[in-house]
Amino acid sequence: MKKKMIFSLFAGVAISVTALYFAFKNVPFSELIEYFQSIDYFWMFVSLLFVGLSFYMRALRWQVILRTASRISFWRAYHPMMIGFMLNCILPARIGELARPAILQQKEKVPFTTGLATVATERLFDLLFLILLFAVVLSVVDIDPNIEMSFGSYTLNRTTLLNIGSGMVKLSLILIFGIALISIDRFRKLIRLVIMKIPGLFSFAGAGTQDTIGKYFSLPMVSIMENIAAGFGLVKDVKNLALCLFFSLTIWLLQAVSYYIITLGCPGINISLFEATVVLIIICFFIALPSVPGFWGLWEAGAVFALSLFAIGAKEASGFALVSHAIQMFPVIIAGFISAIIYGVNIRQIQYNS
Question: Helix, strand, coil % (nearest 5) of the chain?
Answer without folding.
Answer: 80, 0, 20
